Amino acid sequence: MTLPQTETLLLREDGPFLHITLNRPDARNAMSLNMVNELLTVLESIVDNSTIRAIVLRGAGGHFCAGGDIKDMAGARMKAASGDQDAFFQLNRRFGTLISQANHQPQVVVAVIEGAVLGGGFGLACIADIAIAAEDAQFGLPETGLGVIPAQIAPFVVQRIGLTQARRLALTGARFNGAEAARLGIVHTAVPAAALDEHLNATLKQIRRCAPQANRITKHLILSVGQQPLEILLDQAAQDFAAAVASEEGAEGTMAFVQKRLPSWAQE
To answer: Quick one: 63 and 158 in the same domain?
Structure first.
């Protein structure tokens, strides 16, 4: 597989897993427009790649992501001053395109989180299928304290933890650690920083046990809840179930169970 060339991301293939590391450690991996575009390009390039079963997203240098890049904001301000009325809109909306793509990515998205998890980084944590955080990671939505708003992030925060807690966090800019993020449901587990890789490896082992195509269809089903009438959704789910039972994966999974062995996809 040929992956796009990137300047702000480190890409590493490990069997059926693609590791993507945000690589601007001097800026605590703040999301520059270039990083947003590169990450979006990578995600779009592997949408139809069924050999990649999971994406591991993390940050370099001990931080996940400290939010948006202030330099891009300054650049947009200069464009706006020169008459480009859409400069701020385009900058902000581009991140929304990225986070929506990441949310609907057919592969399992695993976020390994430590250090700063602010603004856009907070949003990325909220769309991860599985989020593992260091207990001392620092979470927050600092936007209103800067006189701006968590525009593209807020809908995903609400979906993740509900309206009541999203209100509190967004309207106070409260900072809290990974343990509290786990209690709130932003991440699924919080562990000592030294144990992050151990928990990641255990998670990837679990993902290996799941049939790749079945995982893709299941993720799409889950994300469709609330997006269409329930009876229509259940009809589609039944059709997908029938197709899965008749598929090669369905046959292999059933045979493996009867023969008391791991299915082929778990042996890769």
So the answer is: yes
